[in-house]
Write a structure and sequence with these properties.
The chain has 246 residues and is an alpha+beta fold. The protein contains 10 helices and 8 strands.
Length: 246
Amino acid sequence: MALQVGLGNRLLAAFSPADLNLLAPHIQKTSFDFDAVLVRTGDEFKHVCFPLSGVIAFLVEMTDGHIVASTLMGAEGAVGALALLSPSRSPVTATAYVPVTALQVPVTQMKLAFEKSATIRHVLRLHLRTQLIQLNTVAACNAVHPVECRTARWLLEIHDRVGHSEIQLTHGALAQLLGVRRTTVTLTIRKLRAAGGILFDRRGMLEIDRRKLEKIACECYAVMRSRNKHMYDEELPVSSRGALCG
């Protein structure tokens, strides 16, 4: 699938020029600081948000007050894509874990484009399928892999999206990613420091050694990274190829 040059969001970049022309008049740039909420559980989606930078965590809120992250998203995807399949309220809370810049389009306008363009429908379905695979992988990973391996996986996933070894992440946020207590996070960080995967941890800032974390992480990281990397590589339907090649 040909990608459009110059767009910071991979999902948007997979649209044809004609698709982008449908959306261009309605695109607005926005930003979200650390811990800002893009949408809360149960809220109706108002916009489809296409991150350009930063990291968004999807958080599941339990009835006993526990909050656990189900997956992450960066510039590879879109928040609110579910709203294009049917009238939808968010099943999770989407929160900026690393400050986010993004482009957003009103759901009403995205639905019109979704209905007009086979390319947009195909790309968004690839994106949603990848999200489902990631959710299944995270569920299995949480059930069978040690907390140190899962911590390495989450940190590598964040690093993939921010691109530098210093990661601003509190122990509280890491506890949500892992679904554990902060005391467990503290012990896990100590183990990863001893193994050389984390170089320092202070004031909500971690510095990682990627090479060593890759050796510690479980196989789930490689599976999810490969799926993200090749999310939009599949061929478009024959009827849609002309728009991309023109």
